[in-house]
Amino acid sequence: MDFNLKNKVAIVTGGSKGIGFATALLLAKEGADVAICGRDITKLEEASAIIKEATGRDVYYASKDVSIKSDCEEFVRETAEHFGGVDILINNAGQSSAHSFELVNEEMWRADLDLKLFAAIFCSNAAIPYMKERGGGAILNVTATIAKTAPASSLPTSVSRAAGMTLTNAMSKDLAKYNIRVNTVCIGLIRSEQIERKWKRDYGHLSWEEFSKLSSHKIPLGRIGETDEAANVISFLVSDAASYVTGTSVNIDGGKGEAL
């Protein structure tokens, strides 16, 4: 399928590793110019070099903390100045923070909401004027399946992700008149540095394939997903191929989620 992303400008927060990197790479392969941010400048430099070598596309990168409003605004403005506009925003920055309710203190609540909810709000507010200038755009908020059915000891992540889902739905209604589409993907078990650490720490005697297929993961498709599988869905949703899709959520979880 042709995603028709040639010469589109795409911002991916948390784009130096994991799903963010896989998505930035795929968007560039499909012809987009990409801008990635994160906190680790070394990882950003490495990710940028890989994308450039693999695709020949320009990559803008900068070390930013998207939990800070001014950093969000600066990165979007710098991207627009570098490429001449913004068409796509993927709010991907985040990390897992899962504890029982009584163990979550105020600092943990605020840090998680700042990184996962307010970062999406700040980046979106900064990007929308540029999308209006282009006659439309696409915003994709990366959330998680636990936003729909929160298990025990999933705080504060489940709450911030649920807020991100509601944000997506409300934004899609407000921004449709500008031809700006807003969707979310709800991530389940996808290969990540955190999951790899658990594999090496607790199941080092198993290969990745063996660990991925453990029945204890309770994944109907029988394995942990790969980052490029998430990137495929994300790239579709921000592309013109999904031009009539807005205000929806798509689970990327191998069928494990208990809610549509």
Describe the structure.
This protein has two domains: 9-190 and 226-252, NAD(P)-binding Rossmann-like Domain (Rossmann fold, 3-Layer(aba) Sandwich), CATH 3.40.50.720; 192-224, no CATH class. 45% of the residues lie in helices and 17% in strands. It contains eight helices and nine strands. The chain has helices at 18-29, 41-55, 69-83, 106-133, 157-175, 193-202, 208-212, 227-238; strands at residues 9-13, 33-38, 59-63, 88-91, 98-99, 137-144, 155-156, 180-187, 249-252. Strands 3-2-1-4-6-8-9 form a seven-stranded parallel beta sheet, sandwiched between helices. The chain has a two-stranded antiparallel sheet with strand order 5-7. The mean pLDDT is 96.
Keywords:
alpha/beta, Rossmann fold, 2 domains, seven-stranded parallel β-sheet, two-stranded antiparallel sheet, 8 helices, 9 strands
Helix and strand layout, with pairings?
Elements: E1 9-13, H1 18-29, E2 33-38, H2 41-55, E3 59-63, H3 69-83, E4 88-91, E5 98-99, H4 106-133, E6 137-144, E7 155-156, H5 157-175, E8 180-187, H6 193-202, H7 208-212, H8 227-238, E9 249-252
Parallel strand pairs: 1-2, 1-4, 2-3, 4-6, 6-8, 8-9
Antiparallel strand pairs: 5-7
**Residue ranges: pLDDT <50 for 5 or more in a row?**
none
For the residues shown, what is the average pLDDT? 96
**Cα-to-Cα separation, first versus last residue:** 25 Å
Any guess at the CATH architecture of the largest domain?
3-Layer(aba) Sandwich
How many beta-strand runs?
Answer: 9
SSE order = EHEHEHEEHEEHEHHHE
Structural class per helix/strand content?
Answer: alpha/beta
CATH topology type of the largest domain: Rossmann fold
The number of helical runs is: 8
CATH class of the largest domain: Alpha Beta
As laid out across the biggest beta sheet, the strand order is 3-2-1-4-6-8-9
Oligomer: single chain
CATH-defined superfamily of the largest domain: NAD(P)-binding Rossmann-like Domain
> What share of residues are in beta strands?
15-25%
